[in-house]
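User: I'm putting together notes for a lab meeting next week and I want to include a structural view of one of the chains we've been expressing. I don't have a solved structure, so I'd like a prediction I can at least talk through. The sequence is below, exactly as it appears in our construct file.
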Amino acid sequence: MRRCLGGHLLEGLNVRLPVRPVKGQMIAYQAPSGLVQRVVLKDGRYVIPRSDGLLLVGSTLEEAGFDKATAEEALASLKRSAENIIPALADCPVAHHWAGLRPGSPEGIPFIGALPGFPNVFVNAGHYCNGLVLAPASTHLLADQLLGRKPLMDPTPYQPTAARLA
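Assistant: Thanks for the context. Below is the predicted structure for the 166-residue chain, given as structure tokens.
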């Protein structure tokens, strides 16, 4: 079974970090300037304007292992959602369609902290769809632990305990 780099590194310690790839497909429309000026969310999908004029639409959530292939079914679903959110997109071309992988954890809660039995091995993984949003806080929490400071927040829910790693 293919593993992420973190999982591969931890295998040498006989530690299995239960983080798995979760595929997400997105599209980008080439739209007229100013059609959408802020992030729009509806029914679990979103449209995000970029400064280069593209409108990002996402995303699917698929348990597909490390497969990053795109699918016509996902493209059609994303287009339906986008055109439901912003009807004018029906007249705009799709400029790109791609897939990426997110690191998912079993409960959707990232692992942040020292590994059980390895007080000098720390992880910060499994942020799923919220990696960019959670990066500042999770990095701050990990830095607090590494430096022995009072943590920014209670680290208990994020600790990679033996029970969470099972």
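A couple of points you could mention at the meeting. Strands lie at 20-30, 40-42, 45-49, 54-58, 94-104, 111-115, 118-125. The chain has four helices and seven strands.

User: Perfect, that's what I needed.
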